[in-house]
Amino acid sequence: MGKLNTWLRAELEKVSATAIKAPDKEIEEGETVIGTLDDLDTRKMFALRGIIGDVIDSKKKELRHLMVDNPDHQLERHPSSTCQICSKVQTLTMLIEKVRLVDTLFWTGLKCELDDNGVAAYLKGGAVAIRKGWKIVACKPDSPHHLAVVDVILGGGPFLV
User: Fold this and answer.
1) Which of 53, 70, 105, 160 has its CA 20 to 30 A from that of 8?
2) How far is residue 73 from each of residues 65, 68, 85, 91, 141, measured CA to CA in Å?
3) pTM confidence score
4) Do 34 and 44 belong to one domain?
């Protein structure tokens, strides 16, 4: 088993069923309920996205402080073991890659929980979101609840909460 699989399994094991916070956003006008997310592993992915996102935010703050204190630093190809800034950049980069993976696994897992009618509604609507009570809804991709805040961290992508 590779390092990534080992990491993912370990992180998912840390997420207890009681620690998973359900989405609290209500179903909006124009959204259609197409299913319910009952799968515990997919719910754990939902929780893990937020956990990793919080770690990324913290690491970004640390990096910003270091960069302010070292404004002339160039991200060069030198050993990260000798450069605190480069080490933090590498750590942050790997966390971003991991949260992208977990996000993809979550949304794919969520869509896999749909029956044929749910898949058809999702394809017709163009996007899927998760709502209060673990309801899966079909919605339009240009809906206002698309989150743009991850653009800075992840470089874009249709993340719906």
Assistant:
1) 160
2) 12, 10, 8, 17, 40
3) 0.77
4) no
